[in-house]
């Protein structure tokens, strides 16, 4: 079950990142974050009311609040990085954040087996190679790398926090709702400050209503990924769940290849293959 839900997480995050990166090429990143997360809040609010999730309220929700504060910073940095550099280069660097939940799992006493340990190393190396990272170039590219590393740490922290925010399915719905409400509040405040300082909140030709379905997909896929990751972490070793969930850059790179025709180099193809090998080792260990 852990492997299945963790792989679902990587698929959802990979597609959400691809959609978010595309949207920020036309719409300011803060606007993308706020609108997509607002849609997620509305849907989650209905789910919480329908399932009676309010009864699961407790001190553990502070983990969700903290994740909600860290999340917008990470998403904003990552979407800006995706808009600046090729998705196939930026996205794999974001997976470095897996070190945070893996470290938490090790501190809590988890000790992967030999096959799982080898799988972790192979998968992480594969994910990093899947983007064929390029560290040379203009200042814009260096800025994209810096933003991606900031996002990576934030994503890793969110993964560790959301796994501690609930112990039941209805509690998970409530935790995700609280996290997204905090996301919208923090992102909305940042957007307000940005606009007051003269930055545009919308493209020059106004809000693209045709983008609303894409914004909804990004918000809902992201929140669904948080949910599947929490389930994976609760039903198996966090070290395994975190590494399998971190395979999302491979999904983003493949989507970029299929839609944007970004060419995959030999090192990227080899990296994707190693990531798959690591996945098999983790699932069988």
From TrEMBL:
Per the UniProt record, which residue ranges are transmembrane?
Answer: 28-49, 61-82, 114-132, 144-163, 169-195, 207-232, 238-259
Q: What family is it from?
A: Belongs to the EamA transporter family.
Pfam families per the UniProt record, alphabetical: EamA
Q: From the UniProt record, list the coiled-coil ranges.
A: none
Record carries keyword Membrane:
yes
Please tell me the species this chain comes from: Streptomyces coeruleorubidus
Tell me if Mitochondrion is a UniProt keyword of this record.
no
Q: Which residues form the EamA domain?
A: 3-130, 145-282
Q: Which domain of life is it from?
A: Bacteria
Name of the protein described by the UniProt record: DMT family transporter
Query: What are the record keywords, sorted?
Result: Membrane, Transmembrane, Transmembrane helix
Which PANTHER family would you find in this protein's record? ACYL-MALONYL CONDENSING ENZYME-RELATED
